[in-house]
Amino acid sequence: MTSAAATRLPRRRRPGWVDSFLLAVRIAAIVLLIWGIAGTVVKGINGEGPTGEAWRDLVVAGIAQGAMYGLIALGYSMVYGVLGFINFAHGEVFMSGGMVGFFVANYLWDIRFWDTNFVLSILLVLASSILASTLVAVIVERVAYRPLRDAPRLIPLITSIGISFFLQYTFAGLFGVAVKNYPPPPDYLRARIGFLDLEIEGTKLAVIVVAVVTMVALYLFVEKTRTGRSIRAVAEDKEIAALMGINVDRTIVATFAVGGAMAGVAGTLWALLFRGVSFITGFLPGIKAFTAAVLGGIGNLGGAMAGGVLLGLFEGVGPQLVLAGFGIPGVSQLKDVVAFTALVLVLIFKPSGLFGERLAAEDRA
Amino acid sequence: MITIDMRRMLRWGMTAGGVMTFTAAVGMLEAFEDRLLIYPVLSLGYLLLLWFVPVAGYQSSNVAVLEGMEAPPRGLHNVIAGAVTGLVGGVVLALFAIVINAFDLRDVFVPFSLKLVGLLTYGLGVPEGLPYAVLAPAALGLVGGLMHLLPASVRRRVILAVEWVVVVALLEQVFSQILRQIRLEVVADRVFTLKALEWWAALAVAALVAAVAERTRGGFGRMRERLFAGDPRQRTRNSAWMAVLVLVFLIIIPQLLGSLLSEVLANVGLFLLMGLGLNIVVGLAGMLDLGYVAFFAVGAYTVGVLTSPLSPRFTLEWSWWAALPVAILTSALAGLLVGTPVIRMRGDYLAIVTLGFGEIVRILFLSDWLSTTFGGAQGVQNIPGIPLGFTEVSGVGPEGVLYFALFFVLLAAWISWSLQESRIGRAWTALREDETVAAAMGINIVRAKLNAFIVGAILAGFAGALFAAKLGSVFPSSFELLVSIIILVVVIVGGMGNIPGVAVGAVVLIGVLGGPNLPGLLAEFAEFKLLIYGALLVFMMLRKPEGLVPSVRRSRELHADELTQDAWLDKSGTLAEAPGGGRGAG
Amino acid sequence: MRRVGLVSLCLFLVAVGCGEDQMQAGPDDPPSATSAVDPVENGGAAPEGSEFVPGPLGAVEVAPGEEIQIRSVNSITGDVASLGTPNQRGVELALDDYGPVAGRAVSMGTPLDDLCSPDGGQAAAQTVVADPAVVGVIGTTCSAAAVAAAPLISNAGMVMIAPSNTSPALTSDLAGTQGSAYQPGYYRTSHNDLFQGRAVALFVRNHLGFERAAAIHDGDPYTQGLTEAFRAAFEELGGEITTFTAVNKGDTDMIAVLTEVAAGGPQALFFPIFMPEGGFIVQQVGGVAGLEDATLIVSAALLVDNFMELSESEGVYISGPDLRFGSNRNSITGRTAEGLLAEYVASYGEEPSGGYWGHAYDATVMLLSAIDRVAVEVEGTLYIDRMALRNEMDRSSLDGIIGPISCDEYGDCGSQRITVLYNTDPRNIEIGKNNVVFDFAP
Amino acid sequence: MVMLDIHNLHKSFGGVEALAGVNLHIAQGEIVSVIGPNGAGKTSFFNVVTGFYPPDSGEILFEGESIVGLESSRITEAGIARTFQNVRLFLNMTVLENVMVAQHCRTRAGAFHAILRTPFLRREEAEIRARAEEILSFFGTRLVGYRFDQPALSLSYANRRRLEIARAMASEPKLLLLDEPVAGMNPRETAELTGLIRKLRDERGFTVVIIEHDMRVVRDVSDRVIVLDHGVKIAEGSYDEVSSDEAVIEAYLGRPAEVG
To answer: Model-level pTM?
Structure first.
């Protein structure tokens, strides 16, 4: 019925100078990307750059680091979905899990239990780390965030900054400022394990497997269980959820608890992968995890994990793949530049994150 | 019969016990045990340990009096409640001392040493010292309870006197320097011994404060009403008067204070300059910018690279005055470059992307790749001061820097006030209220937001240029993410969208507590500074979210519900959107 | 009650009035410190008939019963707290050991924080300079803070002895030309980076006989300066730097940087960075193809227990000042290195988390002994002449915990002995701490 | 002279086709009512015309020029102003500021003028304030005097509706789109507003398009009535013609049972 010929297809928006600027940025990004990668390929061909095997290790390390970010980002996305503000203290919740886990692991190492049956001790460490992180997350929610539930979103954000400082320097006061090293995992876990045709270090494989398992468990919890459904309802609209008989307070506590548990798991994986933990270990990963949550589309749990892995890859592989092609010296120093530039470009191409945000009505873009 | 609410008393007692145990466990008691406040009686460590007990004692029986309800009678039960609260707190503390004494937890909890046990039991060790460990808090709880018996006005004055004694004792350095600066060091030497306030001097200060408070009874309150009077014309006349008064006060201050306080005030000036800039972006236009330090860095590096003889690439050695306009230009350009992609993004995406830009700029200045221009990790050094006729204003003589900082702050205040009271300011406010409707009213959202970004960037550029000249060297470590966060906190805690608010925020947070890289007046809290900072932030946001000196509009926004008794629409109607506003910074 | 308020108020105003005319702002002449005697005899200020004539920089006057004021300015917050806190404790222990000077107690005042940044350093220096009774400063921890603090402290005529600054810019290039940030009155007991850079280059090039090396720093002025010194010295000796790159503080995944380094196929890797990044590199380097047999060299920043206890730190060379204090004895306080370490653990409940506590101890003792020699008692008042103190510091030489201390004309007082230790057994790090495989002295 | 000309306008949200090919025109100086059952696409029509959502296809000509794809602020500048179904005022700004801010696109004082407080700025600010006060006086004594400096959220519901119209007038449009202006008002206020709408056209020369459910208002005020249903125009003409039109009754009341 519509006579297509008569009406030319109208452009979506007549481009102002801002749109043309963003278009230029998009084009420039693509051109630079291709040029960088081409440069690296050329260097690779005449044997300068890292070998094929090195590339694989880079990718695996990026995925493992990304899985870590993803696990913390899950907590971010859940809290953000329900309460809608950036919880700066979530990095510290992750750190508290790591720290408590250290003391348990150290004790097990002293009584020589660690290297005799490692599996049991790592489970003990995992349990203590989850317990600590969940406890800290729930207490923080009860004391600082509950009274501010109806305040405009900037107020709890400043509170979370205060909590972040408070937790950091409480742990510094209680446990000292020195970096604490977990006992080393047993050799069979550190050796390289053949998986498909790849050779991956045991710890990295464990980290990826546990991250996937945790992700699936969380997905089942959120999608299938009653509490999960009420969390999604509260995330959609607090008032309506209350009308439907959902105890909003208990649901929000459950959200914080689950977010804390995720961070606790991440704390133990940190111990396996990096082993060094201190009172400021939580701040930067917290920021990176939120970047991952935004990259994947805030509020979208699958997006958070995928965003985390992608961020890990951008950081791990990006500098070598793109910047080295331009012959820039000391590319690893520009790791964060690549990660944040990637975030900006993704948000320019797709304003609500890669996998689209799932947010309450009034928060939607 | 007056019933004492046992549950409430127990809760306050446990809280008091918890606070005391935490203070001791974190190591604050031990760290400040040797810093005497009131000679020879009170040390800072014990003050930090026990300050909360009288507060808890008072609160445990303090029933909130609502309008229209007659206040419950105050009597003996208040005192008993206070004492019991203190007792419960003391028991908790004693248990803590016993636990530390019994088990050696030192390899886990570093501060749990026998020395701490000695302190908790006033040097008598576990069995003998325990009664004192319990009775001291009980006595303080009793004092808290006794406060009920005093009439309200007397109680307020006693609290004020105590607060002032603690402030004078803590800020001993400031007061002794002021006294020395005005030739009264003989007074300073007698009043302060071993950096503590003599006990009789403490009583004198308390008496003086009580006298002054009694004379200006409620004067401060009256002045505040007149200041924030209803109609705008009278208010502008008031604020003009206020501005002149502040100006005169600020001119004579550097002469009065000497170098230490001029340094602190110069730093406060720098942060206030950036606070006013960020206030335009966050407070007026409602965009949550977490990467504001990038513009500060651009301003500082521009001046550094152009004026320093050791600048790696260009050895232009311009004067600071020639470099300033270039610094403004480059920070404006940076504002444009950062602003444009960010404009279309929603609240929290904007926050994380600006945070990203802040980190990108810092790492590029730090990187070896660009070190041939910006000096990499060694930064740019030997930046000359600001040539002013015969002398040169630089960090060595902070008074000069303070004058410059004040000049720039007044300029920034004028710019943000004049923009706020113009059509651009109205556009920003509308934008913050409801972006889509503002667009429908003909406001070009993109241009309005970019304006805010660029003006904010220029003010940060000013601050950067002054910072480079003051410090004489520019290192990437001065432009951490923490700086952006602290400036945001200054704007929010001070009073978002309100110039005097941001000023008060800067003085309190940067001057007293110290900025990210600055010690501030309470320098001695060194390793516990951020702990106290964090606790203060949380308390501030729970008690007074609209800020220390809120703008009329901001407090209306936060308390919109109480203000509108006659609103026809239900709470969830249009009103619920009002505080949330256009999904801006809220 | 009301009259009391009025009286004190107008007293205050009168004081302000008469104080007005004395002001001179000008930054060039030292602040007119009333308790420090002004260089120009002005009227009745100086006591009659005393034969004490202050030098060009003025003198500190310490009345009977008063304390001699010195200050500690170190990084005691943030991620460098692990280096700064032991420095401050070194000063505290030195004060306890040395006891009173010329009959007066010595007070460190409130410990100041240089926040390991230029603005922190300047602010702390301002706090120090504001109190004219201060004689000298032990600090700063980070070179960046010293660059900003030194001008103020030197300008105030005070003396500054840094326990852990190593940047060449603060003193000299060891060949007679003054460093760009040198200020008169600045001394340090730590070594000069150029020595360590040259020592490590010599060790890698000659002792180990390698031609290809790589370097990683972490964007801190200290580590970047040291790797820069190493690169210059190594290339001078005919070696080739295959990769010169960096990580950021807070990075955890090191595979990326190690892959970048592995691409150049170095025989040795020098990364003088702090924990935890240093630990992450050592733990992850084994998994990177091409670096399996690369020799790892670090600096004293990692001469800490929680690094040396890492199983992967076996076989790592640790270059740095000769921390083999062993049986060294401080000739003035008589305290041995082991005794000081034991005292440290007893009073602070943890092993020192940084390597320069010995340097801080010796710096404090050096300052106190110099004050002792310079102070003059006249009618009960002790005068410490600032210029005389500086000259005394230039001349002072003593045997410290860290070894023999004597200052060159630009303030490098530390024993420039650089040693390279070989960490043989992470389970017993004491062996590693004394297992010197290479020795370098200028 | 045709002021607004719509050709074959399509807009769908996900599966729902809100506008399925709307064709209509508005002449200069007319008062036109747009009516239709709930969900007929009336408000979507307003939102698409004022640039809130770009149309999927079709043409919108305002005074002969296409305004498809323009930012809503550029469309307001072109001369179309609107009010909202559920009053969306700037609640924390004062009554006067709400009207003053709407003159943003008609004034030019930039940042430099503001900072230097130039005479041009002072004159323009005075003009803005005067014009705002004049427009507010259009509604009699309700929104003047002490009301100027009161926050918009303290106004009663009817006054908010009036303020929103005043705000729309302030951007000096040629075409006023009023979205259910009398919804929720009592009969007396409805009658008064109906008179005001006619005054808008007669005294101020606005062309007015109203979305309205109250048929008495439609009858009293509109020169012409357009009926939308399921995103399509099903009838057009005077109120009497339209109210007797077979399709319109069926759209509102549904098909009589027996025909089924």
So the answer is: 0.85
